[in-house]
Each structure stands twice: as structure tokens, then as C-alpha cells.
């Protein structure tokens, strides 16, 4: 058992010995599980109503659910949900690697030849 600080409420708690990506006290873990279900339901129900709304910010989702933005951001950190900001961070790194690989496959290693058209 180790003493940890909850990422959600910032209180100290004793963990059960398991390794967690995001340390949460039992009360916050229970609260965030219920919030996750609520957020998932909202995202599912509003995806077609808002024109396939897939890029929602943490602030908007928190406002729609009537919760603190920090709660949504902890869910994002846990990889339970994805907001527009978290999606763009993950996609940009992956897209950059794909672009680099494509450039390496071009004649000349993807470098532009100046003076030729």
C-alpha cells in the first residue's frame, strides 16, 4: 500500500497496491465512472443532432453536463473520453510520422528540387 494524491480532488488516500495511470481515491473513481456513463450517453445522443458532433471541447461537455471542467479533463487524461483538444494532440503526432514516412518514399527523399518544375 502506498499513499497517493487523487488527481481529481487532490486528497491523499491509500491505494490497494495496483498501478494506475491516473491515481483516484475510491470516492472520485466512483463519481467519475458515473460521469463517464453520463458523458458517453450525451455524446452518443447528440452526435447526429449536432451534425455528427465529434469535436466537443471539455468546457462545452462540462457545461452540457453541469459539472466542473476538471472532471472532464480527468476523464480525458484517463483516456475514457476524447475531446477536440485531446484528439488533435494525438492525431498531430501520428499524422506527422505518416507524413515523414511518405516523404522518405518519394524520389530524392522528399526534398524539393529547386529550379525544376
UniProtKB/TrEMBL annotation:
Superkingdom in the source lineage: Bacteria
Record organism = Aminivibrio pyruvatiphilus
Region described as Disordered: spans on this chain: 83-117
Protein name from the UniProt record: Uncharacterized protein
